[in-house]
Amino acid sequence: MSGFGFPTLAIIVVVGLIGPLLALNTRLRIPVVIGELLAGIVIGRTGFGWIDAFDPTFKMFADVGFALVMFVAGTHVPVRDKTMRASLPKAVLRAVVVGAVAAALGVLLANVFHTGHAPLYAVLI
């Protein structure tokens, strides 16, 4: 399907509903995301090719979806919990150590393999 119009948007909405519909059957215990992934495979390049995954509008949808997921995840962090606050200094120290180790390993891997992708390796680590 070329272009991003109403038919493409309608397909996306229908596919987005397949996951929750599959999850309604409590005997199968299929997570919503599995149903949506399977439906995406069927309509994408791997399946019938109805949707062009390289359409710039999908990049925008992906960015908005990621932002929404991060927002919802952030709202579930119990920031007022006393044990959470007490653990914060130790958690910050651990995060700094992990970041430093990841940066060092990223530089090491980039130098060993001569790729120049040290920041990418550090983030992946």
Distance between the termini: 37 Å
Provide the succession of SSEs. Answer: HHHHH
Specify the biggest β-sheet.
none
Output mean pLDDT: 87
Query: What portion of residues is helical?
Result: over 70%
Q: Can you count the helices?
A: 5
Radius of gyration, in Å, reads 21 Å
Silhouette:
extended
Strand tally is 0
- Decide which structural class fits the backbone: mainly alpha
* Fraction of residues in β-strands: under 5%
Question: Uncertain runs with pLDDT below 50, 5 residues or more?
Answer: none
Structural summary, described in words:
The structure is a single chain. With 125 residues, this protein is an all-alpha fold. Helices cover 71% and strands 0% of the residues. The protein is built from 5 helices and no strands. Helix 1 packs antiparallel against helix 2 and helix 4 (82-113) packs antiparallel against helix 5. The two termini are 37 Å apart.
